[in-house]
Amino acid sequence: MSSLTIHNLDDELKARLRLQAAQHGRSMEHEALEILRLAVLAPSSDLGLAKRIHQRFAALDVQELPIPKRRKFGKSTRSPW
């Protein structure tokens, strides 16, 4: 099995890792290994932002969202340019 050394680890990050490891009953090394394992082995999402948003809201019934009537505000909404 290989080893990995992490240089310049921020003190705050190390303290949080130590706390999280203690909460899970693990050593810091085992906690870091588990975090890496979960991050690397997690299924990657090749979907773009628009597709992820669409998937999240695709199940909503469009009838629940009525389209409001248009109203005119001021003189003209056209740009002078």
Strands, helices and their partners?
Layout: H1 11-23, H2 28-41, H3 49-57
What characteristics describe this protein?
single chain, 81 residues, mainly alpha, 0% strand, elongated
Task: Summarize this structure briefly.
The protein is mainly α and 81 residues long.
Overview of this protein structure:
The protein is an all-alpha fold. It has a domain at 11-64. It has helices at residues 11-23, 28-41, 49-57. Helix 1 (11-23) crosses helix 2. The mean pLDDT is 84.
Range of helix content: 40-55%
Distance between the termini: 66 Å
Number of helices: 3
Major sheet: size, sense and barrel closure? none
Strand elements, count:
0
Low-confidence stretches: none
Mean pLDDT: 84
Strand content: under 5%
**Overall body shape:** elongated
Structural class: mainly alpha
What is the H-and-E element order? HHH
Rg from C-alpha positions? 25 Å
